[in-house]
Amino acid sequence: MIAVQNISKQFGKFKVLNHVSFECRRGECIALIGPNGSGKTTVIKSMLGMVIPDSGTITFEGHDIAHDWRYRNRIGYMPQIGRYPENMSIGQVLDMMQDIRKVPENRIDHDLFEAFKIKSLLHKRMGTLSGGTRQKVSACLAFMFGAQALILDEPSAGLDPLSSEILREKILAEKAKNKLVIITSHILSELDELVTEAIYMQDGSLRFHKTMDELQSQTGESKLARAIAAAIRQCDRDAAGVDEGHFKTGRL
Ligand code: ADP
Ligand code: MG
Fold first, then answer.
1. Residue nearest to atom 5 of ligand 1 (CA)
2. Which of 67, 142, 171, 175 is exposed most, by the fewest CB atoms within 10 A?
3. What confidence score (pLDDT) does residue 246 get?
4. Which residues keep their CB under 5 angstroms from ion ligand 2?
5. pTM of the full predicted structure?
6. Quick one: 109 exposed, middle or buried, by C-beta within 10 A (0-12, 13-18, 19+)?
C-alpha cells in the first residue's frame, strides 16, 4: 500500500534519514520503533508529504506521492504533537476538518467521540485543553473519516490508562477491517497483541524490518519488548562480527 524507497533527508549538516526503504501492506499493523531522534517522525512526515526527502521515492498504491496530494485523503494521521488554532473550540476544529475532508455526516466514525465523551467538551477552546484531551481530539480526527491507512505517532503519550485502552481497542477494530496501521510508541508493552511487524530504526537508518513471527522464532521471546531487545543485540553482534572479520583479513 505504501512503499518507501531509499529515502534520505538532511537538515543542515545533520543526516536524519539514511537510505531508508520498507513496504507497508494493507492488513498489517506495523510498529515503528527506535530511540529518540532516530528519525521515526521524519519518516512518517515524509510519508505524509510534510517533509520532502532529498532523494528516494515514496509510493501510495503504486503512485509516486510527489506528484499528487490526493492520496492524503486516504490516510488518518495522529501527530506526535497536535497543533491547532488555539482560539477555536473543539467543535469548530472538528467541523473545519469535516469541511476540508468532505466526508458526509453519515460516513463519519463517531466511536472515539463517544468513548472519550467529547460531546460535553465541544465548547472548550483548544488553547485551554490539557495534553490528554488534546491527544483525544487528535485521535478522533485520525479515525473519524474512515481512512484505509492510519499513521499514529506516539498515540498514547499523555493519555490516561483507560483512554489508552480505548484507543488500543479501536486500533484493533480497524486492523480487523484489513486497514494498514503504522504506529510508533515508546512503550513497547502496549504494542503487544497489536502489531504484526516491527521496523527498528537507529540514527536515521533502518536496522531491521521483521514480522512478529520472524522476531519470535528468531529470538525465542513472545513479548514484543523482549523480542526487540534480543533482535537488537543479535543485530549488534552481527555488525561487530563483520568488523572483526575485516580485522582478521587485515583490512583494518
Ligand atoms: P524521532 O521521532 O525518532 O524521535 P525525529 O524524526 O523527530 O526522531 O527527529 C530525528 C532528528 O532530526 C532529531 O535529531 C531532530 O532533532 C532532527 N529534526 C527533526 N526535524 C527537524 C527539522 N525540521 N529541522 C532540523 N532538525 C530536525
Ligand atoms: Mg517522534
1. 39
2. 67
3. 52
4. 40-41, 80
5. 0.92
6. middle
